[in-house]
Amino acid sequence: MVDTPHNTNIDRHDVEAVNKKENRPLYKKREKIHPKRVNGGFRRLKWWIMAATLGVYYIVPWLRWDRGPGIPDQAVLIDIPARRFYFAFIEIWPQEVYYLMGLLILSAFALFLVTSLVGRAWCGYTCPQTVWTDLFLVVERFVEGDRNKRIKLDRAKLSLSKITKRIIKHSIWLLISVATGGAWVFYFADAPTFFVKLVTLDAPFVAYATIGILTFITYTFGGLMREQVCTYMCPWPRIQGAMMDESSLTVTYKEPRGEPRGPIHKGQSWEGRGDCVDCNACVAACPMGIDIRDGQQLECITCALCIDACDTIMDRVGRPRGLIGYATLSGEEPPKDKKTLVHNLLRGRVLAYTSLMAIVGGVMLYALLSRSDMDINVLRDRNPLYVKLSDGSVRNGFTFKILNKSHLQRTFMLKVNGVDSPEITVVGNHRLNGGMHHFVVEHNRVKNYRLFIAVPGSQINSASADIEFVLTDIDTGQTSTYDSVFRGPEK
Amino acid sequence: MSDNKHIDDVTGVETTGHEWDGIRELNNPLPRWWLWVWYASIVFSIGYWVLYPAWPYPGGYTKGLIGTTSRMEFIEDMKKAKALQAPYEQKLSQATLEQVRTDPELLEYAMAGGKSAFSVNCSQCHGSGAQGFKGFPNLNDDEWIWGGTLEDINFTITHGVRNETDDEAHSTDMPAFLQDEILTPSEIADVSEYVMSLSGTSTDAVSSKKGQVIFAEQCAACHQAAGEGSTDLGAPALNNTIWLYGGDKKTIMETVSNSRKGVMPAWGQKLNADVIKKLTIFIHSLGGGQ
Question: Do A384 and B129 touch (CB under 8 A)?
Answer without folding.
Answer: yes
